[in-house]
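Q: I'm a student working through a structural biology exercise. My instructor gave each of us a protein and asked us to get a predicted structure, then write a short paragraph describing it. Mine is TrpR-related protein YerC/YecD. I'm not confident about reading structure output yet, so if you can add a plain explanation after the tokens, that would really help. Here is the sequence I was given:
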Amino acid sequence: MNKKIRTEAVDHLFEAVLSLKDKEECYIFFEDICTVNELLSLSQRFEVAKMLRDHKTYLEIAEKTGASTATISRVNRSLNYGNDGYDMVFARMNQENE
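A: Happy to help. First, here is the predicted structure for TrpR-related protein YerC/YecD. I'll explain a few features afterward.
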């Protein structure tokens, strides 16, 4: 894990996120804390990750999400060499949908 992001301020942010009870509360909080573009960028990366896990091509992903090949490549690097955070969340989401 990246020790540079482990700060008291980041801890407070994550505690705030973990206190949210449902999707509506997430909308309320994230609309306040993020700009529209920041939120759309985060959601775009998440969609890119899902599509990469579904073995979509860079071209398919770029066309559907509007993500640049640089963004797709960065997300792909995180999927392959990161902390497995995407996979953890995808697994939990799949369990909830079953």
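A: Here are two points you could use in your paragraph. The helical segments are 8-18, 23-33, 36-53, 58-65, 69-81, 85-97. Residues 1-33 form one domain. It's a good idea to check both against the output above yourself.
Q: Great, thank you!
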